Amino acid sequence: MGSREPARGGGSQGEGPLDALVLLYVTCADADEARRIGRDVVGARLAACANVLAPHTAIYRWEGEVQEDAEVAMILKTRASLVDAATARIKASHSYSVPCVVALPVAAGNPEFLDWIAEETA
């Protein structure tokens, strides 16, 4: 599938580039922040699900220096048409001045699961 085609097939009406499914990859300072943001975004129906992943080490350049910190990653399952709203909501309550929020396209998957994501974010 091309990047402008819907991410899921079969039966759903109104599919187009903005109806494609995406995963939002977000990093947070700790698990509490990730859970709080995840519950908020899912509660607002901007994502169907949030997976808070194990802590990891982030090595990055910030303000001219190489930094190393513990972080927690989160993956949110949503629709492309909701990325802007979800990003704004995440940024509004995130502790970082420039939080990582990136959308990754879903090329294919279990059709019933992909339909569930679309239904929960409708």
Largest sheet: 4 strands, antiparallel
* Total number of domains: 1
SS-based class: alpha+beta
Fraction of residues in β-strands: 25-35%
CATH architecture: 2-Layer Sandwich
Secondary-structure element sequence? EHEEHEH
Radius of gyration: 15 Å
How far the N terminus sits from the C terminus, by CA atoms, comes to 23 Å
Overview of this protein structure:
- The chain is built from three helices and four strands.
- A four-stranded antiparallel β-sheet has the order 2-3-1-4.
- It has helices at residues 31-43, 83-93, 111-120; strands spanning 21-28, 49-62, 65-79, 101-105.
- A hairpin with a 2-residue loop joins strand 2 (49-62) and strand 3 (65-79).
- It has 122 residues and is an alpha+beta fold.
- Residues 1-14 have low confidence and may be disordered.
- The protein has one domain (18-120): 2-Layer Sandwich (Alpha-Beta Plaits).
- It is elongated, with a radius of gyration of 15 Å.
- The chain is 28% helix and 34% strand.
Summarize the helices and strands and which ones pair or pack.
Elements: E1 21-28, H1 31-43, E2 49-62, E3 65-79, H2 83-93, E4 101-105, H3 111-120
Antiparallel strand pairs: 1-3, 1-4, 2-3
What key phrases describe this protein's structure?
122 residues, alpha+beta, Alpha-Beta Plaits, disordered N terminus
Produce a short descriptive summary:
The protein is α+β, with helices and mostly antiparallel strands and 122 residues long. The protein has helices at residues 31-43, 83-93, 111-120; strands spanning 21-28, 49-62, 65-79, 101-105.
